[in-house]
């Protein structure tokens, strides 16, 4: 089955002013004019999501939130509601990033509620999964990822899950000079597809997009994406420069759409 390749980028909390954030996304929009073959999304720093939404209007780049409240609305001081993201025209929601789990103590229960809410609202969750330390033992790695996947979806209906993008981010490879080595990434993507097949269905396993994140750069993206089970990448720091972003995007197109 042909799965649409994906290139996402998160600005985490690196680019936080209106001028800088809009300048950056406009530059990304410029280098992706008329590019329709790859699904592209940006997660701006939450405080500048409104101007970024405005700046991306009419572009080929989707946007969304790096995090949302697990509850739609109500007495939840300090949270950002999915209602606002929808109202702004957002389509994607990042859920369960390693930094949210480690620094902000986000639990699998929270991740489940956010995933469920996002799917019920018809949006695309970019659900982050990944082991904390390198696990060379295949079975151990599979067990850990399976636990995270099953807990995140819980009782959510398989028909809804189809929309998800699974972002495999080995925690030990985030924010580093180098990504996880390609062989390890490829093997893990195979494992994740196996988990989806065994836990849900062959159909879902064949249609779900699984992307890799963790120190992706223009130099390692070719090798990382050179495997059928890798549907794209989730970029952090090395995509801040629009020229690098463009090179990463072009490489993904070259690798994934060559046929
Ligand atoms: O959200 C993106 C990932 O955490 C990767 O970030 P990084 O490329 O800066 O390691």
Describe the structure.
The protein is an alpha/beta fold and 259 residues long. The protein has an eight-stranded parallel beta barrel with strand order 1-2-3-4-5-6-7-8, surrounded by five helices. It has a single domain, classed as Aldolase class I (TIM Barrel). β2, α2 and β3 form a beta-alpha-beta unit. Bound molecules: glyceraldehyde-3-phosphate. The site of glyceraldehyde-3-phosphate (G3H) has 13 residues, from β8.
CATH homologous superfamily caption: Aldolase class I
Low-confidence stretches are: none
Q: What fraction strand?
A: 5-15%
Gross morphology:
globular
| Top CATH class | Alpha Beta
Distinct ligand kinds: glyceraldehyde-3-phosphate
Largest sheet: 8 strands, parallel, barrel
Mean pLDDT, to the nearest integer, reads 97
Write the CATH architecture name: Alpha-Beta Barrel
Which strand order do you get reading across the main beta sheet? 1-2-3-4-5-6-7-8
Helical percentage: 40-55%
Topology:
Layout: E1 6-10, H1 18-31, E2 39-43, H2 49-56, E3 62-65, H3 82-87, E4 92-95, H4 98-104, H5 108-120, E5 124-129, H6 138-153, H7 158-161, E6 165-168, H8 182-199, H9 202-207, E7 209-213, H10 221-225, E8 232-235, H11 242-256
Parallel strand pairs: 1-2, 1-8, 2-3, 3-4, 4-5, 5-6, 6-7, 7-8
Helix pairs in contact: 1-2, 1-11, 5-6, 6-8
The protein binds glyceraldehyde-3-phosphate.
Main location: cytoplasm
EC number: 5.3.1.1
Enzyme class: isomerase
